[in-house]
Hints:
Elements: H1 9-37, H2 40-69, H3 72-101
Helix pairs in contact: 1-2, 1-3, 2-3
Amino acid sequence: MTGEHTMSKRDAYIDKVKAKIDEWNAQISELQAKAKDAEADMKIKYEKQIEDLKEQRSEAEKKIDEAKSASEDAWSSMREGMESAFENISNSFKKALDRFRK
């Protein structure tokens, strides 16, 4: 690579997580709209799921903050843990979302 700016792995990770969070925000908004029109007992279920989804999103946002504040060296050693934690958060979010779609 010649003198071009290359995105570090950390920046790429942060961008990937941010894109995922944007996607989640859209899905949460969609669910909130459905919850508004739902029957009372379904509305309670929706709201519980939406809370779960928001918690997962907050966890992902914390991971972004940790990644941002890490030096490149620190990032190298924490990357694997971060990626696996994010993978878990993604899976939890997907499971919560799937419960809605049933």
